């Protein structure tokens, strides 16, 4: 049989490593012939826009370079499948493409919404008695997928956030005048990535002095009180804040994507202006933005290795006859850090979110407990032997003409 693999949702540093995992494992399996890549996620299947990955990834060097390359080399999408009981026309297009290409297994690398696609598609195939396996391979820097201990992409993003935060600490400490620096970190409803900045506390840093996550209600008055208390103790106060904390209407754009998710940004600037008005000290806000998910020069080797491994296990899962499953990590040991890869039904993950545990957050709601650091620290360990080109990291890229 042939197989197809697609990437969906927001890019990460590790999503191409999972693609490599699928590709490498498929090369080992004698029953798999062609390995197709779907351009722009499920949209590529709908429109029969697939590329033969064996003609694009030619050598072990290509695979290693792709493994280190951030973002989705095949392109991405945010396409929501309708309920097939109400409208199955798009499902018929998907099935037509897969049958035409003799594809017996489809692997979808993505987050919560992508697992919704895995769930719907596998259920539709069951209903229609179609023997095509559908397997979900997780990714998201938000780390908010249920069941799995963590998600590929999160460790590298966390490493970037913490490293950048430490550099901000050094920069902000050079002047004699008091200052406040507010760092806005990605995280819609779950504060995992913002919370990960607390790993600096394990390294002897007092910063970030304040950490605000969406799991706790946010009050501007309480925030100002917190900042004033920290300014009494520190010359330069560093604040980490999730983009998804509660703010007044109008601070963010209100525009939504196909899944109804708001486009978030602006909380850092909002708090900067509030501090300038209320306290009057030197203040700046920094929005880390897309750098959190694409800074592969600072990726976690643990993250990249695990991302490849979970892609590989996805292929084994399909060949074992499973479908409608999502690959997940289960942590079995803290010291030494050890995980195993298992499966769960896509229905357990689709459209659900995993939030920071209550005991990760301090009772005051404005910082992360030291006891939580043992969760984060193993995920950011190790560095890749980054392939360089003229002094900067080299990336694997598919020619634009191939993807059109």
Structure description:
The protein has 404 residues and is an alpha/beta fold. The protein has two domains: 2-141 and 148-152 and 297-350 and 382-403, Rossmann fold; 158-293, Phosphofructokinase domain (Rossmann fold), CATH 3.40.50.460. 33% of the residues lie in helices and 18% in strands. The strands form three sheets. The protein has a seven-stranded mixed beta sheet with strand order 3-2-1-4-5-10-11, sandwiched between helices. Strands 7-8-6-9 form a four-stranded parallel beta sheet, with helices on both faces. A hairpin with a 4-residue loop joins strand 10 and strand 11 (338-345). Helix 1 runs antiparallel to helix 3 and helix 1 (15-28) packs across helix 11 (301-319). The protein starts with a strand and ends with a helix.
Quaternary state reads single chain
SSE sequence, one letter per element: EHEHEHHEHEHEHEHEHEHHEEHEEH
Number of helices: 13
Proportion of strand residues: 15-25%
Question: Which short descriptors sum up this protein?
Answer:
alpha/beta; Rossmann fold; seven-stranded mixed beta sheet; four-stranded parallel beta sheet; 13 helices
How do you describe this structure in short?
This protein is α/β, with parallel strands linked by helices and 404 residues long. It contains 13 helices and 13 strands.
Topology (SSEs and partners):
Elements lengths: L1 E6 L7 H14 L6 E4 L3 H5 L3 E3 L7 H9 L20 H12 L2 E8 L1 H16 L5 E6 L15 H19 L6 E7 L6 H4 L14 E3 L7 H12 L4 E7 L24 H12 L3 E6 L3 H4 L6 H19 L5 E9 L4 E8 L27 H4 L11 E2 L2 E2 L6 H4 L1
Parallel strand pairs: 1-2, 1-4, 4-5, 5-10, 6-8, 6-9, 7-8
Antiparallel strand pairs: 2-3, 10-11, 12-13
């Amino acid at each position: 049989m042939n197989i197809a693999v697609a990437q969906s949702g927001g890019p990460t540093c590790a999503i191409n490593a999972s693609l490599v995992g699928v590709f490498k494992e498929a090369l080992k399996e004698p029953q798999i012939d062609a390995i197709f890549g779907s351009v722009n996620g499920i949209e590529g299947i709908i429109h029969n826009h697939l590329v033969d990955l064996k003609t694009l990834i030619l050598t072990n060097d290509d695979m290693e370079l792709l493994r280190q390359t951030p973002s989705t080399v095949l392109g991405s999408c945010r396409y929501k499948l309708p309920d097939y009981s109400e409208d199955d026309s798009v499902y018929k297009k998907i099935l037509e493409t897969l049958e035409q290409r003799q594809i017996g297994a489809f692997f979808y690398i993505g987050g919560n919404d992508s697992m919704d696609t895995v769930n719907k598609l596998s259920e539709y195939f069951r209903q229609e008695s179609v023997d095509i396996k559908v397997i979900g391979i997780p990714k998201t820097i938000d780390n908010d997928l249920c069941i799995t201990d963590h998600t590929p992409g999160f460790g590298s993003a966390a490493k970037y956030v913490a490293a950048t935060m430490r550099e901000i600490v050094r920069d902000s400490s050079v002047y004699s005048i008091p200052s406040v620096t507010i760092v806005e970190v990605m995280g819609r409803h779950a504060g995992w990535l913002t919370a990960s900045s607390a790993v600096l506390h394990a390294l002897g840093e007092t910063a970030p002095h304040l950490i605000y996550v969406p799991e706790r209600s946010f009050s501007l008055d309480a925030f100002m009180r917190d900042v004033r208390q920290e300014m009494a103790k520190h010359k330069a106060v560093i604040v980490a804040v999730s983009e998804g904390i509660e703010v007044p209407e109008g601070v963010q754009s209100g525009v939504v994507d196909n899944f109804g998710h708001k486009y978030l940004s602006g909380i850092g600037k909002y708090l900067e202006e509030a501090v300038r008005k209320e306290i009057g000290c030197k203040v700046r806000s920094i929005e880390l933005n897309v750098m959190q998910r694409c800074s592969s020069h600072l990726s976690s080797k643990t993250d990249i290795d695990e991302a490849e491994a979970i892609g590989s296990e996805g292929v084994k899962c399909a060949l074992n006859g499973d479908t409608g499953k999502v690959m997940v990590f289960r942590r079995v040991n803290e010291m030494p850090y050890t995980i195993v890869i298992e499966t769960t039904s896509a229905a357990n993950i689709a459209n659900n979110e995993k939030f920071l545990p209550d005991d990760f957050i301090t009772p005051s709601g404005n910082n992360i407990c030291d006891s939580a650091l043992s969760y984060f620290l193993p995920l950011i360990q190790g560095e890749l032997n980054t392939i360089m080109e003229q002094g900067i990291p080299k990336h694997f890229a598919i020619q634009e003409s191939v993807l059109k």
